[in-house]
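Quick log. Single chain, no ligands specified.
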Amino acid sequence: MSCPASGPCIQRALRIFAFLLLFVCVSAFADEFLVGPSDYRSVITKAVPGSIMKLSPGVYNGGLQIVRLNGTADKPIVIEAADAAHLPRFLARPGKNTISIVDASYIVIRNLILDGRNLPVDGVKAEGYSRYAHHITLEGLQILRHGFSQDNVAISTKCPAWNWVIRGNTIARAGTGMYLGNSDGSAAFFAGLIEGNLIYDSIGYNLQIKHQQVRPAVADLPSDSHLTIIRHNVFSKFGNASTGHRARPNVLIGHFPKQGLGADDRYALYGNFFYANSTEWLFQAEGNVALYANLFVNPLGHAVHIQPHNDAPKNIWLFHNTIVANGKGIELEGDVDTYLRLMAGNAVFATSSGPARLQSENFVVPFSKAQEYLIDPSAPLGRLDLRFKPVVSRIEPSACTVSEHFPDAGKDFDGVAYRQCGVGAYATEAAVARWLPNLSIKPLRQAQDNF
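-> predicted structure:
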């Protein structure tokens, strides 16, 4: 049957053509590309919101430039391994940071190997000349051989950076594991989520988040207060650590701006395993910090140090931690009456009894008696078990609840809910530890609060 030059048949054809044209246009702007070492750089520069770049296995010599690439909240730009079992390997180049981020947002970078080749470069860096880098996700990266010196960093931000997710990465023997912010406090890092990472044998810090001065006025910068979450990570400095004036804690948390925008921001650190440091503390902090349901094990020295650094502690909450330290367990400095909001339900086994106020609502005994109370506190990693023995009678602190809202504050190190007032990082009802501390990625439970 023939179709007239006008009428329903032509209109139907035009509608079909319009639909096909729309489909082609949408596909062109939100497409999936399989690229390799020879063409990935030219393709990535054309990425638009919704683009997914699949990198085939191989060796990549040209770095990864994330320059003026901006996705959206619902359509991020994704750059990831095409085959999660065979990761692309990016080799460092002299004088160039391997992944360089400049004026970028809503970017996901997943499942890559960054081989520093022991050159004096950083693995991932939000460059200091960048105006911003926000909503950046780094997941499943293996960052290796970035230990040329303590000044070389696996993951570094040197511009205003917010809403980063740093998840499930392995950082081995770097100069510094993560250095977020600038040394003078000029590059704010906030509203971040750092979870499930393994960082071990750093020369300097496993992680430092720098103090912050006045938060800069940047377009799209959130104006309300925020929480930065650091959870379920493994921070170890058993080997490779610097000494003397270059010695660093496993983790150091600096203060937020003293006034104005960001002054009420807070940190929540929970479910982390801090292990071994012969030259410094496992953890040091000032500002607004909640520290709970963590394991601190230092057979070589001290554990938790709250002290003035670039400013002073402001609001500090310490609860439900287990500390085993052949040195000081908890040390509080500065105007403690002004900043200490809660210190209860901690189990502390240390050579020093600590501040007097630690004794009343916490379980405090000498380091030498830890074996009497805990299942196996001196076992090697992988068998280390810091749960209380079932026959041990424990105190129940009078301060069982936290009035402030912190994520997963009612759960223990393994994510098990406390059903009564407990002591230490394990709920009394937890019959079996789900993960015995060791140098591996700690499995993440899915039932965590969404923050």
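The radius of gyration is 25 Å.
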